Amino acid sequence: MPDFTLRLNDPDEFYEALLAAHENLNDEQSQLLSQALVFTFANQIGSVDQLKLLIKETATALTVE
Amino acid sequence: MKGYEIPRYRYHSSHEQLSGEKVTHEVVVIGGGLVGLTTALELGRQGLHVVVLDDDNTVGVRGLASRGVSYAQRSLQFFQRLGIYDRVAAKGVSWSRAQILQNDTCLYEYSLVKNAAEKYPPFVNLQQYYLEQFLVERIAQFPNVEIRWENKVCNVNQDDEQVSIEVETPEGPYQVHAQWVVACDGAWSATRQALGLEPEVRTFDDTWLIVDFELKEQLPPLRVVWIESEDNNGKAIWFHPMADNVWRLDYQIGKYEDAEIAAIKDHAAETVRQVLTHRLNREDIEFELVWVGPWTYRTYVLDSLKHQRILFAGDAAHLKSPFGARGGNSGIQDAENLGWKLARVVSGKAPASLLETYNLERREAALENVRVTTRTSRFLAPRSSQEYRMRTVIQQLARSLPFARALVNGGRMTEANQYRASPACVYDEAAESFKGGIVAGAAAVDARLSINGRAVSLIDLFGVDFKVLIVASFQVKQKARDAAKIALDQGLEVLVVCDGSVIDGLEGEIEFGSDDYGDVALRYGSGDLMVYLIRPDAYVGWRSRECSASALALALKACAGLLVDTEECARA
């Protein structure tokens, strides 16, 4: 099961790093970067079984009222 | 509008003004605002002769805004030592719960209470002018502290011996001289200007409107933050209780044209009504506006908080956005950090190099506070569609996935900053590898214990002189006794907290506490022996699992500023 409790050791630092990565990009470049990050983060996670669960649960979370 | 009623203080001619005699005061504090008054009171408590120069004759900024609102636990503990806590607690509103919302959805709710046994609440909200009034009235009990109202500083000069201040009064100009000056004259510091110091300022165009209003009914004391509210065109709203059943609705306007602000102010009452009606789900809500005003923010940190004999504190030294209540509280921490150091330097107990550690420690804290508050301001005011998209997604995820809540940045509340690289704290690698407890450079925390069968707060036992805290279990009673003996031999105050047993046969400034609640061991480390050297500002200066006379002596030297490399400080 994916773990949705907080695992990031410094959430604000991560958010800031992500903002910095998008700095000076136009909207399309930003979307491409977001997509590219999905692939590299996924590769870091490794387990496709885990990733499939993450895809499913994340998509569900986006529709919660 | 109702407005705030504030006290006025009388101008008096001073001694040197009347006699023309030159007096060199030990310390002059420039600015009688929150930080200046706190600094003066702390220095007065430490026995120094202090003169405060203030250009106004009242508290608050010309009596208009209520300004700062939230005072953190760390500040409240300091207020206890200053003798104003009871008044602050009685007049203010204690709160510990906060809600973060997106429109009608509560993304999460949290409590800031870390330990139910704590004497001091996480926060007390109080209009700043009340706090300043309490400080003024407390200072009046110290004959060694004099506040000179309507004394406007026009110029400041210094040489190796002293600082000379040109002051303008209703009776004309005169000069004030001091060994040391603490400049607490705010964001537009005249002292900074006189010295030609121009910090690099970062400006932001995110504008907010403060609306303080008196509510004619009682609501629970809850801090409510809307990251996005449909009652404010999808922008943020802050909702805070204060004393006298006055509430603050602080809402984001964003960028605006000057011509628009008058209209926005005119609609303030409607906005309040709309938010309250929506929140309480009924229409019959009575309130009266007290104060309305727009604000925006800038950030800077002076390159150095110490310029020879002049030390900068509060907004004069560093400015940040108000998210997380890091303005007033960090200024109060400046005063707490500086007080004991300046007192020791003036009385000859420590070299002037100790004051370099004020600069190093509080500048590090200021930089951290600017970094943390700027992250919040960027979360609240996204700069691109990508930033906006990130924020939208993380708020959506926060509804169902707990980790996402940590990324919703509705303000990171102020804490006592840790000093990670100070020469006045001894970082013993072996000691820092301990599990638990408090590392050197971090603030001492409160814990409940018993002394002579009476429950007391540990934090209240700190804050006068250096104190050695020995936490030991009964099994290592002999080691605790040896450690206490070493500390007493070095003339230190000692507090031994053991699980109930008294160690006898020791003479000197020694107190015995009993860890009846297990609270001290929980927070300061348990098992074997733990020895802490607590600085007079209730920070951990050093800690160890044993107490050798040489290690303790070295730690004391470091904490007293004797090991500061002043050349290195100058280069930094």
Helicity range of the residues of chain A?
55-70%
The radius of gyration over CA of chain A amounts to 14 Å
Helix content estimate of chain B = 25-40%
The strand count of chain B comes to: 28
Count of strand segments of chain A: 0
The CATH architecture of the domain at 15-92 and 118-199 and 300-372 in chain B can be given as 3-Layer(bba) Sandwich
> What does the main sheet of chain B amount to?
8 strands, mixed
Strand % of chain A is: under 5%
Q: In angstroms, what is the radius of gyration of chain B?
A: 25 Å
- Total count of domains of chain A: 1
What's the N-to-C terminus distance of chain A? 23 Å
Tally of alpha and pi helices of chain B: 17
Strand count, sense and barrel status of the largest sheet of chain A are: none
Give a written overview of the molecule.
The complex is a heterodimer of chains A (65) and B (572). Chain A is mainly α and 65 residues long. Chain A has helices at residues 11-22, 27-45, 48-61. Chain A has one domain. Chain A is globular, with a radius of gyration of 14 Å. With 572 residues, chain B is α+β, with helices and mostly antiparallel strands. Among the domains of chain B are: 15-92 and 118-199 and 300-372, 3-Layer(bba) Sandwich (FAD/NAD(P)-binding domain); 429-567, Glutaredoxin. The longest helix of chain B has 27 residues, at 354-380. Chain B is globular. The interface between A and B is medium-sized, with 24 and 23 residues.
Please tag this protein with its features.
heterodimer; A: 65 residues; mainly alpha; 3 helices; 0% strand; B: 572 residues; alpha+beta; FAD/NAD(P)-binding domain; Glutaredoxin; 8-stranded mixed β-sheet; 7-stranded mixed β-sheet; 17 helices; globular
